[in-house]
Amino acid sequence: MKKNSLRHIKFKENPFKIPKGYFDAVENDVFAKISSENFPKKEGFSSPTRYFKDVENKILTKISEEENAEKSGFAIPENYLETIEDKIIAKISNDKRPVKVIDFKSIILNRVLPFAVAASLLLIISINYNNKTTSFDSIASTDIERWIEDDLVTLDTYEIAEVYKDTQIENQDIFAVDELEEYLNGTDVESLLYEN
């Protein structure tokens, strides 16, 4: 049976050889390979033509512009703020142009009044056209009963008494005492109270 391990094989000399100076130059070789693959051979930046000849003049011009910008280009005449009010008032008083005045009276008379008159006439005509006088006789008794049932007309005992002043109401018993007792004994009074 063969052994699976290679321990029994003995080498006379090392089969791998390292070239001389390999570890001294390997780092530079690796970086050279990486840079040649990742970075282009051409440089990415270029300067404009005549850049280095003109840059000094451009900088000096910019500095002189900033120094001059601090000085204002406008000057106020002497006593300007003290005399400006008098000059403006003098110009206004010398101005003789006619002033346009709006006359509200003429606007109301010419524009609003005709509409008001037309609206008034229309209102008077519509009131007279729709104004139909109704008498108590023309109302049907069924209509009055329906109004009372629907609680549209409330009747108070004092109002009824005012209408029937001439009539004498006699004190009469509507029910006999026996009938009243029988009615009250036979009905649940509480349910009557809840209904009303």
Give a topology summary.
Layout: H1 22-38, H2 51-69, H3 80-94, H4 104-130, H5 141-149, H6 157-163, H7 177-186, H8 189-195
Summarize the structure.
This protein is mainly α. It has a domain at 142-195.
Helix and strand pattern: HHHHHHHH
Largest sheet: none
Low-confidence stretches: none
In which range does the helix fraction lie? Answer: 55-70%
Q: Can you count the beta strands?
A: 0
Q: What this model shows, in words?
A:
With 196 residues, the protein is mostly helical. It is 57% helix and 0% strand. The chain has 8 helices and no strands. The mean pLDDT is 77.
Task: List descriptors.
flat, 0% strand, 196 residues, single chain, mainly alpha
